[in-house]
């Protein structure tokens, strides 16, 4: 460790009279680099941590054996080749990194996407090597902030004197000086991996500080290279408990890593160090071609299950998803599904509030400062949940919030366009390297590969999920839908759907033969018997999920090309937080999920109120309602097929509706929004919630129920004509969907158990 001359100690690292890093008050030196050097820590503070062997490498092997490794497949090959030139011996060592549950000496702190908004723009994608961590506070060095200065005394050299050996500056004349942090910048720290140097202080096995005299002698005699050493001016320092608070607020990822990431030079890396470390921790699994393949495959399967639900919605004239299950799979299945579906939609809306807060909090904190109470996560979640989502959820029909849904389409297009624009700019940079772009990086022999897929696919399936609202949408759809003329639902929504009549499957009056048809007739009937309304609904489903797949595909490929070394799970996190275009995109994402809240709440409300109606109705009325739910109205009047989802009430025994009081809808909405907000305030792990919701409840609703409908159609269908072939096809499709459901449950629960 070396200190600058007294007259320059307050100016920070400088180049041509300008500070390289912001000047900050002096703190105690980072660590004892040269034994007994002036300005170092006291003898007691300079003691290195006492360890027996490299336990970190042993732990890394355990992580690899548990399936979290697979680092060879995720290593940045261009960075490895550059390291081979700079330090051949270091390049022979394995490069690895994995997440840890807490900060540790010798570990890394990687700035998250919210760090710039909380701590300052200079913290964007910083990688910090932690030197000390304990009850007295924490100290670390920023690894990836090279300056334009060199240690030499000539042109471009450090324009200040050092309280140390003059021979050192001559020996390391071409060595780059790094900005180690914004505290104590008058102290220069020497970092290396040479244990044999006299006076070296061990941080962890394999990484050392100081020993400048021995280092100078080795470089002068040719025993070691200048690139085997790194010089840092300044450090980062945290008061007791400060780092823990920043981690809890989401500013840092904590990780352990191999010494290759710490000791190598961070100059013109093909893949920046932050991205390389994030990639090693699991940031890249498939490559762009396989990513597109799985996106399209999931979209295709979900489109098929959506069409199955549409067909049975028309046949049963159900008014909600749970009503459809009640009519086709029996009262027991409907009663079991209703609370599950309600909880699923409640947790989905909770996730939307969490996403909105994650998008808006950094922007508010950046504008008003982290001290502003109204920019904190708690305030934002409460304001969005009770001040915005609650009023939007009061209407009784989806048609009443059609404008909100239309806004989502334009907002998604803006977000995709913003990412695509920034990706094109990144690709156009002269320094852009295509070497890190891979069509496929899937390694079937790696357990980590399959586990990563198992985590990603349920989340992807959740991203396409719109099945819970399909019955409500079908109920409100006009008899002959068109993309180019106004929908009747918009006019009926003004009355809350109370004046809307049930529509028959033929688009006009219904027939008794349709009511008595078997389950298989709807799923396997000829296309000529498909009503215009059903064809239109299926067209809407195909177009909607196709557009979503296109949006996801374009955004994923654009993000991968812009950040090939390992994009964050949120693509926008890979771009600077201060980028105005990305700030606008984050706002749009927040508004998109807010707009999705009422779209999920309407089917949740119709489900739970219909469930309550069935169980609170008198036995005779309930029995009549069960039978009426299986037939269509022959008169097209105000009969029993109109239900809770369209603003109706409980069905009476004669087929007429007994309207529920308006206060029931308001009370349910207040309860739903209040509980969702409370959960969002108390839960911060969004990834775990997505895995749980997407891998369990969503799997049942998206794959399990359509599979059960197909299996019932296959087992109850007749044997006339070509029915045997159709039944075999329905049976195979139903079994495949049930296998997907069971597999999703098993893998999700296993992953969540392993994480905890």
TrEMBL record:
Q: Which residues form the Amino acid transporter transmembrane domain?
A: 286-486, 533-713
Q: What Gene3D superfamilies has UniProt attached to this entry?
A: VC0467-like
Task: List keywords of the entry alphabetically.
Answer: Amino-acid transport, Membrane, Transmembrane, Transmembrane helix, Transport
In which broad location class does this protein mainly occur, judging by the first location in its UniProt entry?
membrane
- Record carries keyword Ribonucleoprotein: no
Polar residues biased stretches: 1-14
Q: Where are the transmembrane segments?
A: 285-312, 333-355, 407-424, 538-561, 581-599, 662-683, 689-709, 729-750
Low complexity bias: start-end ranges:
19-35, 504-528, 620-635
Q: Where in the cell is it found?
A: Membrane
Q: What is this protein called?
A: Transcriptional regulator
User: Which species is this record about?
Assistant: Chlorella sorokiniana
High-level lineage: Eukaryota, Viridiplantae, Chlorophyta, core chlorophytes, Trebouxiophyceae
């Amino acid at each position: 460790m070396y200190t600058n001359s007294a007259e320059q100690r307050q100016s920070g690292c400088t180049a041509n009279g300008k500070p390289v890093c912001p000047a900050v008050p002096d703190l105690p030196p980072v660590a004892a680099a040269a034994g007994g050097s002036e300005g170092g820590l006291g003898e007691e503070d300079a003691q290195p941590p006492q360890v027996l062997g490299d336990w970190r490498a042993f732990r890394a092997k355990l992580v690899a054996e548990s399936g979290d490794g697979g680092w060879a497949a995720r290593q940045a090959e261009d960075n490895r080749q550059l390291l081979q030139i700079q330090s051949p011996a270091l390049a022979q060592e394995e490069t690895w990194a994995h997440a840890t549950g807490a900060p540790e000496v010798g570990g890394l702190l990687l700035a998250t996407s919210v760090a710039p908004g909380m701590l300052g723009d200079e913290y964007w994608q910083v990688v910090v090597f932690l030197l000390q961590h304990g009850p007295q506070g924490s100290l670390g060095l920023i690894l990836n902030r090279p300056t334009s200065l060199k240690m030499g005394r000539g042109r471009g050299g450090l324009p200040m004197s050092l309280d140390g050996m003059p021979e050192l500056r001559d020996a390391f004349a071409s060595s780059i000086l790094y900005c180690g942090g914004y505290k104590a910048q008058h102290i220069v720290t020497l970092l290396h991996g040479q244990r044999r140097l006299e006076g070296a202080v061990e941080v962890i096995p394999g990484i050392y500080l100081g020993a400048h005299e021995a280092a100078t002698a080795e470089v002068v005699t040719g025993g070691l290279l200048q690139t085997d050493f790194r010089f840092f001016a300044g450090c980062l320092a945290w008061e007791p408990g400060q780092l823990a608070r920043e981690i809890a607020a989401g500013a840092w990822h904590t990780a352990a890593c191999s010494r290759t990431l710490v000791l190598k030079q961070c100059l013109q890396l093909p893949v920046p160090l932050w991205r390389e470390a994030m990639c090693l921790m699991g940031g890249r699994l498939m490559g762009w071609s396989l990513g597109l393949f799985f996106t399209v495959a999931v979209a295709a399967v979900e489109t098929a299950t959506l069409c199955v639900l549409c067909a049975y919605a028309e046949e049963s004239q159900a008014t909600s998803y749970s009503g459809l299950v009640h009519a086709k799979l029996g009262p027991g299945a409907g009663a079991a599904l209703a609370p599950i579906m309600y909880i699923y939609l409640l947790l989905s809306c909770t996730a939307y509030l969490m996403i909105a807060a994650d998008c808006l909090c950094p922007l508010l904190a950046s504008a008003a400062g982290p001290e502003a109470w109204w920019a904190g996560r708690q305030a934002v979640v409460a304001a969005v949940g009770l001040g915005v989502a609650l009023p939007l959820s009061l209407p009784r029909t989806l048609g009443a919030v059609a404008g909100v849904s239309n806004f989502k389409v334009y907002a998604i297009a803006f977000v995709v366009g913003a990412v695509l624009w920034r990706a094109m700019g990144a690709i156009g940079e002269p320094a852009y390297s295509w070497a890190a772009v891979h069509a496929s990086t899937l390694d079937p022999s790696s357990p980590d590969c399959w586990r990563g897929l198992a985590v990603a696919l349920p989340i992807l399936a959740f991203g396409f999920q719109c099945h819970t609202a399909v019955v409500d949408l079908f109920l409100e759809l006009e008899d002959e839908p068109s993309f180019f003329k106004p929908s009747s639902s918009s006019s009926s929504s003004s009355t809350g759907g109370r004046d809307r009549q049930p529509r028959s499957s033929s688009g006009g009056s219904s027939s008794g033969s349709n009511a008595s048809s078997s389950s298989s007739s709807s799923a396997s009937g000829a296309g000529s018997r498909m009503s215009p309304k059903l064809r239109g609904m299926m067209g809407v489903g195909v177009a909607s999920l196709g557009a979503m797949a296109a949006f996801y595909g374009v955004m994923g490929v654009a993000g991968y090309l812009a950040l090939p070394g390992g994009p964050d799970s949120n693509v926008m996190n890979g771009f600077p937080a201060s980028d105005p275009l990305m700030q606008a995109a984050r706002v749009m994402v927040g508004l998109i999920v807010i707009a999705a809240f009422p779209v999920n709440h309407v089917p949740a409300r119709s489900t739970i109120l219909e469930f309550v109606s069935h169980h609170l109705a008198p036995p005779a009325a309930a029995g009549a309602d069960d039978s009426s739910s299986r037939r269509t109205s022959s008169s097209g009047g105000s009969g029993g097929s109109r239900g809770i989802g369209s603003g109706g009430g409980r069905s009476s025994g004669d087929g007429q509706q007994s309207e529920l009081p308006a206060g029931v809808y308001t009370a349910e909405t207040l309860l739903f929004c209040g509980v969702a907000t409370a959960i969002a305030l108390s839960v911060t792990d969004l990834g775990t919630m997505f895995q749980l919701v997407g891998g369990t409840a969503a799997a049942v609703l998206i794959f399990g129920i359509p599979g059960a409908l197909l299996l019932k159609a296959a087992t109850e269908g007749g044997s006339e004509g070509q029915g045997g072939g159709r039944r075999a096809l329905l049976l195979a499709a139903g079994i495949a969907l049930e296998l997907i459901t069971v597999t999703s449950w098993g893998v999700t629960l296993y992953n969540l158990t392993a994480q905890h």
